[in-house]
Design a protein that fits this description.
This protein is an alpha+beta fold and 417 residues long. Helices cover 17% and strands 35% of the residues. It has a 5-stranded antiparallel β-sheet with strand order 1-22-21-20-19, with no helix packed on it. Strand 7 and strand 8 form a beta hairpin.
Length: 417
């Protein structure tokens, strides 16, 4: 075993006690492994994997635990899951896998690792923005006014830009604005809805601000702020959608809840803390009857809008991973998912059948060296647009951005099939 270390998970869970129980379980698994009590090691590893799915250490250790207990099929499936999340996993030299290395299933893992290194390039670069430290997140094209808008995490504002030249201009600024995350307009493109959360990467960050978020309602024509919907506590509002009645649904990765704004009132629509971990992008199906929401660890949850108790997690196709979905969009009976929490980064198209279940998948982009954490995207006409290089990895521990190692924001498009 080469992965006995404990990764902090406090940022993923609102309750410190839950994180503490994970740590205790993990320590028990370490002791069982060191004592060569592999039956208990498997038991604890299973519990850890169920409590915190898609964890790089827990998932890998579970695969090794299966191998040590003579469960070859389960070990191979576990390693396959790890590879699909991260194709750099160095399992070839792992002594705990010795008893499965001469099997055909093990050779299939070697072949899969090689395949996962192959690039797929179907998106093309459209333009490069003029503001290097912008740190783009949400993206929106307003069809009626032919206006491109982008949210800035670093500079706490909304920027418009010319797609032909990439020239940026401030479109909305406010002294009380936090990092701007998502941008969506109502059906008539009269109102712009915005999520804004305190992030360590924003200019002017202070510990006293942590957990604060707000949703903004802005008049698109006048650019005037019509209303603020503030939230205190452990909130990070990542994405939002607007239905055809003007109701707004907002994902919160800090508390794993979905908020709803109806008649200018903000309330919790669904509390998912018992079944979700890190909520990200959300989108309606074609007729608005169902809402899909991405969880960074578990995949995609489908929710009946009229009866939210009718919901379940979608089953993913073979050779795909549920992990790391940030942006999520619906397009012609398919879901477009931006997986930036995996290695390599990939953009996927998941086809939906008549029951809005995933029936097939197609890779749009995969293992492109110029892609460094694309986040949220938007669809205009039949094209997907997204920024390929949000600089999340270029900040130091103090939240300072190293501009010498980043590129100007690059806008890409993909002609969707």
């Amino acid at each position: 075993m080469k992965q006995f270390y404990f990764l902090p998970v406090f940022f993923l869970f609102g309750l410190t006690g839950f994180s503490q129980s994970l740590k205790e379980l993990y320590n028990k698994s370490v002791l069982a492994y060191q004592d060569k009590n592999y039956a208990d090691f498997l038991q604890y590893s299973r519990q850890l994997d169920s409590l915190r799915p898609s964890h790089p250490t827990y998932s890998y250790n579970l695969a090794c635990a299966f191998a040590l207990n003579g469960k070859t099929d389960e070990a191979v499936l576990g390693l396959k899951k790890c590879l699909l999340m991260n194709n750099t996993v160095s399992f070839e030299a792992e002594n705990d896998l010795t008893n499965i290395k001469n099997t055909d299933q093990y050779q299939s893992l070697i072949d899969l690792k090689s395949t996962l290194g192959n690039p797929v390039m179907t998106s093309v670069k459209e333009t490069v923005l003029s503001e290097k430290d912008l740190h783009p997140e949400g993206l929106l094209y307003l069809q009626k006014t032919k206006l491109w808008l982008v949210a800035s995490v670093r500079n706490r504002k909304i920027v418009s830009f010319e797609k032909s030249s990439g020239k940026c201009s401030d479109w909305f600024t406010d002294s009380g604005l936090y990092s701007v995350m998502a941008l969506k307009a109502d059906e008539k493109e009269k109102i712009l809805w915005v999520t804004s959360s305190v992030m360590p990467e924003m200019k002017g960050f202070a510990k006293s601000l942590e957990g604060k978020s707000e949703i903004l309602k802005i008049d698109i024509k006048t650019r005037k702020l019509l209303k603020r919907f503030p939230l205190d506590g452990n909130h990070v509002l990542g994405d939002l959608v607007v239905d055809n009645k003007g109701n707004v649904y907002v994902s919160d990765s800090g508390e794993a809840v979905i908020f709803k704004i109806a008649n200018d009132k903000l309330n919790i629509w669904i509390d998912l803390k018992k079944e979700a971990y890190n909520l990200q992008g959300l989108t309606f199906n074609d007729d608005g009857s169902e809402l899909f929401i991405a969880d960074y660890l578990k995949g995609i949850l489908k929710i009946n809008v009229k009866n939210p108790q009718q919901r379940h997690w979608l089953k993913f196709p073979e050779n795909s991973t549920v992990k790391g979905i940030d942006g999520l969009l619906c397009y012609k009976k398919s879901l477009i998912a931006i997986h930036n929490g995996v290695k390599p980064i990939r953009i996927m198209k998941y086809s939906l059948n008549d029951k809005n279940e995933i029936s097939d998948s197609v890779i749009l982009d995969h293992n492109r060296p110029e892609f460094n954490e694309p986040a949220l995207g938007t669809i205009s006409g039949s094209k997907l647009y997204f920024f390929s290089n949000a600089p999340w990895t270029a900040y130091d521990k103090n939240g300072d951005l190293n501009e010498t190692i980043i590129e100007f924001p690059a806008l890409y498009s993909n002609q969707l099939p």
